[in-house]
TrEMBL record:
Protein name per its UniProtKB record: Pentatricopeptide repeat-containing protein
Coiled coil regions in record: none
Superkingdom per UniProt: Eukaryota
Ranges occupied by PPR repeats: 146-180, 182-216, 218-252, 253-287, 288-322, 323-357, 358-392, 393-427, 428-462, 463-497
Stated family: Belongs to the PPR family. P subfamily.
SUPFAM superfamilies cross-referenced by the UniProt entry: HCP-like
Pfam families associated with the record: PPR, PPR_1, PPR_2
Amino acid sequence: MAPPTSPAAVAAAARAAPTPAAALALFKSALSADQALCPLAVLPHLAASPSLPYTLLTASAAARPHATSLRLYARLKSLSVPIPVASLHPLLSSLPSAPAFALFADIYRLRLPLCTTTFNIMLRHLCATGKPVRALELLRQMSHPNAVTYNTVIAGFCARGRVQAALEVMREMRERGGIAPDKYTYATVISGWCKIGRVEDAAKVFEEMLTQGEVKPTAVMYNALIGAYCDRGKLDVALQYREDMVDRGVAMTVATYNLLVHAFFMAGRASDAHAVLEEMEKNGLSADVFTYNILINGYCKEGNDKKALEVFEGMSRKGVCATAVTYTSMIYALSRKGHVQVTDRLFSEAVRKGIRPDVVMYNALINSHCTGGDMDRAFEIMAEMEKKRITPDDVTYNTLMRGLCLLGRLDEARGLIDKMTMKGIQPDLVSYNTLISGYSMKGDVKDALRVRDEMMNKGFNPTLMTYNALIQGLCKNGQGDDAENLMKEMVEKGITPDDSTYISLIEGLTTEDERMAAADAANA
């Protein structure tokens, strides 16, 4: 049966509702069914029912823009009827922080009785605006804080990377509040340490929790630790936590499997990644968009764009919607193989599906055209993104610079460094190495060395890539002795030559004896 839509009919139906909960459900249904129905128009018909106006306010907070609900609140206030603070909680909670602070100040001015829930909502707003210290001050003024109160402030400090301060609040929670930390408390602190790279501290908190035995470990805790150790490259430790997780009867989630699949791919262990994926499916868990993105990235890393495309096409068949990350990965992978038309098609398809391209996705498309040698189109794409108020970043300029260098258009590439500087984007190591490589490929070592000196004056130290480019340029010019001296310099600076270094030297040496000696050095 369709809900009533006229203000009078809605009011009559609400008055006839058997319980306040039924009246609230009716208001929500009516407001959702008819967007033209204004809560302020319903209000005059509720004069004979003192409690219903506040039920209407609760429904309005869920189904109408904030401005409408605030006008309804102002009208209710003008009626000089006592306002139950609980009826304001949905509105206070759903408002953006600034108007929420204003509403709270008004509630406080009216001397309405505040409860723990009211304070908890305001603590969340304070923490959301980066003010955990203010939130802690408010917490200490509360007469009846609960676990939610402390967990909100703890989460606020962790979100700002201040996990040690969060631990102090956790200690205060137990000692001053007499409230035992729960699974949310521990999960927040453990995740907080992991996010700032202090995984050993996270592990210590986890072990202390297990020793005390008050709180059982959860998948959220294990996932934080597994993810942090995977990021550190300590896959063996991550797998130990996975084993412990299973031994303690904590069910692995899709997120757990995703972390492990990603870690195996990054470690070059594709077969292990597939084994984990098969285990996940065997346990009845379905791959989500993150799983597919990890698989696509993994195959792209291997250079297996055919397999990546198969996974991409399989997503839609499984009803999983691709994201901007998915399309970006595919565009980058296909651009490396020169499939410019396919990357254009994928970009257009993403836009058609309602995905708003970000700077990373635009950079992927620009890279495709740079790799294909169509610099005019690459610059057109940058102009298009600027029209859409998406600001090009250092990756955008570095990509364009690389494309120009590949075509030997070094003066234009050099001009891009000046242009990005004027726009407030500082050239980075990639910018300078790209330009050095471009000059070296052309045999213009003098300019390459000048850029190297400029880079060092900016505080950047030469890398293996810098030296390899310069050595390649010197060898190309027949300056084998200078190239050897440069290699000695890089070794003195603690940079180990790689195969590319030795190949350039061997190719640049002029006599067969020199080449054989260099080959012996490379094999030593």
